[in-house]
Amino acid sequence: MLKELRAMMHQDIESILYDQAAIQQVTAKLGKQVTADYQGKNPLVICVLKGAVLFMADLVRQIDTHLEMDFMDVSSYGNSTVSSGEVKIVKDVNTQIAGRDVLIVEDIVDTGRTLHYLVDLFKYRQAKSVKICTLLDKPATRVVPVQVDYAGFKVPDAFLVGYGLDYAERYRNLPYIGILKSAVYQLKQ
Ligand SMILES: O=P(O)(O)OC[C@H]1O[C@H](OP(=O)(O)OP(=O)(O)O)[C@H](O)[C@@H]1O
Ligand code: HPA
C-alpha cells in the first residue's frame, strides 16, 4: 500500500533534484559548520513548522554541541504555490528568547517573507544573535532581503516538494526533493 501511494505521488514529480544521499551529505556538511560556530554556546535551535521538521530532525543529529530545540509554526502559503504575503503565527515558541543565540532552521527560503518576519521578531525579543540555516535557498524569487548564514542547496525557480515540503499538505513524506509538475496545481489555482 505504501509503495503504491509512493508511486502515485512520484507520478506528480517532474524531476528529482536531491535524493536521500545528497540530502544526507549536505546536512552533514551544515552540521559541521554549525558545530564549529557554536562551540560552548548552547544555541536555541528553532524549527519552523511544518516544512522544516524532517531537516531539523536530521540536522540536530549532526550538531556536536549542547543545544536546545523549540518549534514555531508559521504559515503563509495555505493551499497555494504562491505566498499570500502575510505571515501568520500558528504556534509560538515556548522558550524565552532574550539573551539566547537563536538558530532558525528552515526547509526553504523563497520570497524571504517568513524569515524576514522571524528574524525581526527574535531581534525584537532581544536574542543575543539570530542566524538562519536553510536546506534550500531560492534566490531568484526573493522579495525581501534575508541574510542566509547556512544554506544546503541553491535551487531554481520552481515549486519543490518532498522531504517536508508540501503542496496543499501533500508530498511532505517523499524521501527526496523534486519539482512538482505544474499540471498538478495549475487547474486548482
Ligand atoms: O520565503 P517564503 O516565501 O516566506 O517561503 C518559505 C516558507 O514557506 C513554507 O512554509 P509554509 O508557509 O508553506 O508552511 P509549511 O512549512 O507548514 O508548509 C516554507 O516551509 C517556509 O517556511
Ligand atoms: O517551492 C516551494 N515548495 C513548497 N513550499 C514552499 N514554500 C515556499 N516555496 C516553496
Chemical compounds bound to the protein: 1-O-pyrophosphono-5-O-phosphono-alpha-D-ribofuranose, hypoxanthine
Write down the overall geometry: globular
Count of spatially separate domains: 1
Segments where pLDDT lies below 50 for 5+ residues? Answer: none
β-strand amount: 25-35%
- CATH C-level class is Alpha Beta
Largest sheet: 6 strands, mixed
Strand-pairing-aware structural class: alpha/beta
Numbering strands along the chain, what is their spatial order in the largest sheet?
A: 4-3-2-5-6-7
Query: The CATH topology is what?
Result: Rossmann fold
Organism: Loigolactobacillus bifermentans DSM 20003
Catalytic activity: IMP + diphosphate = hypoxanthine + 5-phospho-alpha-D-ribose 1-diphosphate; GMP + diphosphate = guanine + 5-phospho-alpha-D-ribose 1-diphosphate
EC number: 2.4.2.8
InterPro entries: HGPRT, Hxn_phspho_trans, PRTase-like, PRTase_dom
What does this structure look like?
The protein is of the alpha/beta class. It has one domain (20-176): Rossmann fold (3-Layer(aba) Sandwich), CATH 3.40.50. It contains 5 helices and 9 strands. It has helices at residues 2-10, 20-37, 53-60, 113-124, 182-186, and strands at 13-18, 44-49, 68-75, 88-91, 101-109, 129-137, 150-154, 160-161, 177-180. The strands form 2 sheets. Strands 4-3-2-5-6-7 form a 6-stranded mixed sheet, with helices on both faces. A 3-stranded antiparallel sheet has the order 1-9-8. Helix 4 links the parallel strand 5 (101-109) and strand 6 (129-137). Helix 2 crosses helix 3 (53-60). The two termini are 30 Å apart. The mean pLDDT is 95. Hypoxanthine binds at residues 77, 108, 110, 159-161, 165. The site of hypoxanthine has 7 residues, from strand 8.
